[in-house]
Each structure stands twice: as C-alpha cells, then as structure tokens.
Automatic annotation (TrEMBL):
This is SDR family NAD(P)-dependent oxidoreductase. GO terms for molecular function: oxidoreductase activity. Its EC number is 1.1.1.-. Belongs to the short-chain dehydrogenases/reductases (SDR) family. Pfam families: adh_short_C2 (PF13561). PANTHER family: DIHYDROANTICAPSIN 7-DEHYDROGENASE (PTHR43477). It comes from the Bacteria. Keywords: Oxidoreductase.
Length: 250
C-alpha cells in the first residue's frame, strides 16, 4: 500500500498547493473539503502530473462525517502517515462586531475541525507507531491582528492543541507541528481584495505587511509542510513555525 497523506481544505489555496506538493513527494493524497468542484480540480492537477488523489466532499465540523470518512480512507486507501489540517475560515470583526454565529463557525472550522480529524486519525497512527500531524495556524495565533478577534482566538487555540498533542504522543512516534503563515495570496485573500473599496490600495497594504513587501505564495507554505512531514523534519515537534516574510519581526 502507498504512504497516505490526508489534506483538509484541499479544494483551494494553501490546501490545494499542499495536496499537489505531497502527491509530488510520492504520497497518495486523500483530500477533504466542502467544495466538491474545487476538489475535482485539485485531483485533476495531481493526476495530470502522474500522482494519486482521492476526493471526499464533506463538512469538517461534522464529527460523524469526519469519523466515517477517516475509516473509509483507512480501509480503501490505507492508514494515514500524515494529516495536514488546512481548512479554515475568517471573519473581519472586533469582539464587539462578532456575532454568536460567526464566533461559533470560526471556532468550529479552525479549531474543532482539526480536533475531530486528529481524534479520528491518531489511533491509526498509534497502531503503526508513527505519524505526523501538521496544523496550518497563522501569525494571528501569535500576535493580535486588527479586526480578527475570533480568527486570532481560533489560531492561538490551534497552536495550543498542537503542543498538547506533541506532549501526549511524542513517545509513541507521533509529531505534531503548527505552521504560522503571514499573508499568502490565495482565493481567500482574492475575495477580501475584491470586496475592498479600493482593491489596488488594499493589495498594496496587504503586501506591505511583510518585510519583503509581497505576499507569500501557497507553494512557499506547501514546501514547509513537505519538509516538516518528511524525514528531514524528524527533529521538529510541538513547534509553531513562522513563515511570514518577516511580518512579525518588526
Ligand atoms: N491566505 C492567508 O493569508 C493565510 C495566512 C495565514 C493562515 N492561513 C490559513 O491557511 C488555511 C488555508 O487558507 P487559504 O487562504 O488557502 O483559504 P481558502 O479559502 O483558499 O481555502 C480554504 C478551504 O477550506 C475549505 N473549508 C472551509 N470550511 C470548511 C469546512 N467546514 N469543511 C471542509 N472544508 C472547509 C474551503 O472550502 C476552502 O477550500 C486557513 O486555515 C487559513 O486560516 C491563510
């Protein structure tokens, strides 16, 4: 059986780039996302390059769907060696502007989702005695970002979850690592820019947040996932790795 990697949020942006990169590394990739059409696009890209990918259109906030899909992956493709939690959502709001619904949705996708996938996948990794879980957090989990109250809380929680998993399971052959990107040019950021009063000015402002004066690319994040998940990353555990073009250095 092939070495299996599960990637959530694989229909778009960082998740798509990660799925494509890991398939190129030789993993058979099982992809979870709400967006069936986007998943089909990622699969076509992977298969076009000679890789293997499987689509699972589902809601990562649904514990039953996460449990049954993980079991299906284990039986039909193989027990995952790597789990990359990428799916996420954000709301532009201070605490005072955040509705109950938005708070619950952001926490559910960004924090409960990785908890559910990890809880479903860890027993399979523990049976084999090895596994790597990579959580895509954000610099927003380390510093406060303006009008991103629920988002920052969810990503700080995800970094805490990452460290707790590493502490509990390191001696059983499991590594768990968070990656904290700065601003990355994805479909998500494209939508934010399209909705801005002055999209060109908004783009310049977003680029200027990084010392490099540009946004990162999804491939730059996928490359770090590949390193962390692979054998060269074996001494990385429980860390929150920052990849932000110097955004948080200033
Ligand atoms: N783009 C950035 O600047 C940036 C910076 C730091 C961190 N991140 C993080 O990287 C991750 C990916 O961001 P992106 O910019 O690629 O976003 P994106 O919107 O392009 O992709 C997110 C994917 O998650 C999926 N998704 C959302 N809710 C879901 C659910 N309930 N169930 C299943 N799938 C769901 C979406 O369908 C989408 O395909 C997110 O966790 C985000 O917080 C992004």
């Amino acid at each position: 059986m092939s070495t299996v990697a599960v990637v959530t949020g694989a229909a778009s942006g960082i998740g798509r780039a990660t799925a494509v990169w890991l398939a190129r590394d030789g993993y058979e990739v099982a992809m979870m996302d709400l967006d069936a059409a986007g998943l089909a696009g990622t699969r076509a890209q992977i298969e076009g390059a000679g890789g293997k990918a499987h689509e699972f259109a589902m809601d990562l906030c649904d514990p039953l769907a996460v449990g049954s899909t993980t079991r299906e992956i284990a039986v039909t493709i193989g027990a995952p060696e790597v789990l990359v939690n990428v799916a996420g959502v954000g709301v532009a709001a201070t605490v005072l502007e955040t509705s109950d619904e938005d708070w619950s949705r952001v926490l559910a996708v960004n924090l409960t989702g990785p908890f559910l996938t990890t809880r479903a996948t860890l027993p399979l990794m523990l049976d084999r005695g090895s596994g790597v879980i990579v959580n895509i957090a954000s610099v927003g989990g380390l510093v406060g970002l303006s009008r991103r109250a629920a988002y920052c809380a969810s990503k700080a929680g995800l970094i805490g979850l990452t460290k707790a998993i590493a502490v509990d399971h390191a001696r059983e052959g499991i590594r768990c690592v968070a990656i904290c990107p700065g601003t990355v040019e994805t479909e998500w950021v494209g939508k934010i820019l399209a909705n801005a009063a002055d999209p060109a000015a908004a783009r310049n402002a977003m680029a200027a947040r990084q010392l490099d004066g540009r946004m990162g690319t999804p491939d730059e994040i996928a490359a770090m996932v590949s390193f962390v998940a692979g054998p060269d990353g074996r001494f990385v555990n429980g860390a929150a790795l920052v990849i932000d073009g110097g955004m948080t250095a200033a």
